[in-house]
Write a structure and sequence with these properties.
heterodimer, A: 196 residues, alpha/beta, Rossmann fold, five-stranded parallel β-sheet, three-stranded antiparallel β-sheet, 7 helices, 27% strand, B: mainly alpha, 9 helices, 80% helix, 0% strand, globular, disordered N terminus
Chain lengths: 196, 221
C-alpha cells in the first residue's frame, strides 16, 4: 500500500507550489512534512488524500483505501454533543460505536466522555476539540492518516497520548504529518522539507 | 447505478444529524415557514376575497412552495461551508451518501412545510378540494423533484458570491417541467374535471430524471 507522487506540478495564482515533485509514501513509517509557512505542507497532504488534484503529473492512490485527517481546517458540528459527533463520523464510515467503545476512545485521547460526552462541542476549548478530532480519527479506522499540526493546542498529556497512538498505528497505516513543531518532527521516521 | 454505492447507514446518519441540528437551531425551518405564511397571508389579503380562477390558485400555491423551499434548501450545503464542517463531511462521507442524505432532509422539510401551509392556503383562499388524494399525490411528487433539483442547485451555488439570488434563478428552469404539470394537476384537484393521469406520469418521470441527474452530476462538483 503506497501513495506515489510522479512529477507533480501545482500552481496557486502566480505561485508555483510544486514543480515536478516525486515522492513515495508507504506503511510502517511516519513521514514528516516540514517547511516554512506557505511552502505547501497542507497542500501536499490534500494532494496525498486526493482532496485536490495536481495541475500536471500524477498522484497514485491505493484503491478503496480510507482516509482520516486531523487538521485545523476540519471543524466539528458545534450543535452536536461530543458523543453525537463521534457516532456521526463513525456511522458515515459504516461503524456503529457502542458506549463502551466511546468510553475507550475517550480514555485513549484523554477526553473524559463521562463528564463531557453529552456536552455540545460549542462549549469545548480548542484543546478539547482537538482531542475529540483525535478520537474521531481513531474511531473511523482509516488506512491513511493525514495529520496537519496534530498536537497543536494539546497539553503534555494529550501529546503523549497522541504520540503513543501514532506509534502503535504506524505498521498498518500510511501516515503523513505536516508540522513545524520540533516534538512532532522528532517522532517522524522520515522528514521531507519543502522549499519555499 | 450510482445509488447502489450509497450506503444506507451513512444516509441515515446525515438525516439524523441534520434533523438534530435543525431541531436545536430552528432558524432555517422557521424562516421557511414564516416566508410561506407571510406570502400566503399577504396574497390572500391583496386579492381581498375575490373569486379566483382555480388555475391561478394552483399557481399561487406552487409559487409559495417554490420560494419558501428556496429559503430552506438554498443553505443545505452553504450552512456547512460557513460552519467549516463541509470539508470534514466530504472527507468522511461518501459523495452519494451526502447527496441522498441532504436530498432526503430537504424532502422531509418540504413535506413539513406543505403540511403547515396547505391547510392555511385552502382556508385563506377559501378553496374547495374536490380530489384530495390527487392533490396530496401531486404535492408529494412535486416536492420530490423540488428536493432533488434544489439539493443539487444548493451544492452548485455553495461557493457562489451571490448565492441568494443565484439559487432561484438556477432552480426555476430545472423545476419548470415539474411545476407546469403539477400546477395543472393541482387545478384539476380543485375542480370536478376528469383526472389526466398522463400528467402524473410526467411529473414522476421528471422526478426520476432529476434524481438520476443529481446523482451523476454531484460527483463532478
Amino acid at each position: 500500500m503506497t501513495i506515489q507522487f510522479d512529477a507533480v506540478t501545482l500552481t496557486f495564482g502566480k505561485h508555483k507550489i510544486f514543480d515536478g515533485l516525486s515522492l513515495k509514501f508507504g506503511c510502517g513509517k511516519i513521514f514528516g512534512v516540514t517547511g516554512a509557512n506557505g511552502a505547501g505542507k497542507s497542500t501536499l497532504l490534500k494532494l496525498a488524500g486526493k482532496i485536490i488534484n495536481p495541475d500536471s503529473g500524477k498522484v497514485t492512490f491505493p484503491d478503496e483505501k480510507k482516509i482520516a485527517a486531523l487538521s485545523p481546517e476540519m471543524k466539528l458540528y458545534d450543535g452536536l454533543t461530543a458523543r453525537e459527533n463521534l457516532k456521526f463520523f463513525a456511522r458515515l464510515r459504516g461503524k456503529i460505536l457502542s458506549d463502551e467503545k466511546i468510553s475507550e476512545l475517550g480514555r485513549r485521547t484523554g477526553l473524559d466522555m463521562k463528564t463531557f460526552g453529552d456536552e455540545r462541542t460549542e462549549n469545548f476549548s480548542t484543546g478539547m476539540r482537538q482531542r475529540l478530532k483525535f478520537a474521531i480519527l481513531l474511531a473511523v479506522d482509516a488506512d491513511i492518516w493525514l495529520l496537519d499540526e496534530p498536537t497543536a493546542n494539546l497539553d503534555d498529556a494529550g501529546r503523549e497520548n497522541f504520540f503513543a497512538e501514532i506509534q502503535a498505528a504506524k505498521p498498518e497505516k500510511i501516515i503523513l504529518l505536516a508540522t513545524n513543531d520540533k516534538l512532532e518532527a522528532d517522532i517522524c521516521d522520515e522528514i521531507i522539507t519543502l522549499p519555499l | 447505478m450510482k445509488l447502489s454505492r450509497c450506503r444506507f447507514d451513512a444516509v441515515s446518519a446525515i438525516v439524523r444529524k441534520d434533523f438534530l441540528l435543525n431541531l436545536r437551531r430552528r432558524a432555517t425551518f422557521a424562516a421557511m415557514m414564516m416566508f410561506a405564511l407571510t406570502a400566503t397571508a399577504s396574497l390572500s389579503l391583496s386579492t381581498g376575497g375575490a373569486l379566483l380562477d382555480e388555475k391561478f390558485l394552483a399557481a399561487i400555491l406552487w409559487v409559495v412552495i417554490f420560494f419558501a423551499a428556496g429559503a430552506g434548501i438554498a443553505g443545505t450545503f452553504d450552512d456547512e461551508a460557513q460552519a467549516g464542517t463541509l470539508p470534514t463531511l466530504k472527507l468522511y462521507g461518501d459523495a452519494q451518501a451526502i447527496l441522498f442524505g441532504k436530498m432526503f432532509v430537504a424532502f422531509l422539510s418540504l413535506v413539513a412545510l406543505s403540511t403547515f401551509i396547505l391547510p392555511i392556503f385552502l382556508i385563506l383562499f377559501d378553496v374547495g378540494v374536490e380530489k384530495i388524494f390527487l392533490l396530496l399525490v401531486t404535492v408529494l411528487l412535486g416536492l420530490i423533484g423540488l428536493s432533488a433539483a434544489g439539493t443539487l442547485t444548493a451544492a452548485l451555488t455553495t461557493s457562489a458570491a451571490v448565492k441568494g439570488g443565484l439559487f432561484p434563478i438556477l432552480l426555476f428552469p430545472v423545476t419548470l417541467p415539474i411545476f407546469l404539470p403539477a400546477i395543472r394537476l393541482t387545478e384539476i384537484s380543485f375542480t370536478v374535471a376528469p383526472v389526466d393521469s398522463s400528467l402524473l406520469v410526467v411529473v414522476a418521470a421528471f422526478d426520476a430524471i432529476l434524481i438520476l441527474a443529481a446523482s451523476i452530476l454531484y460527483d463532478y462538483l
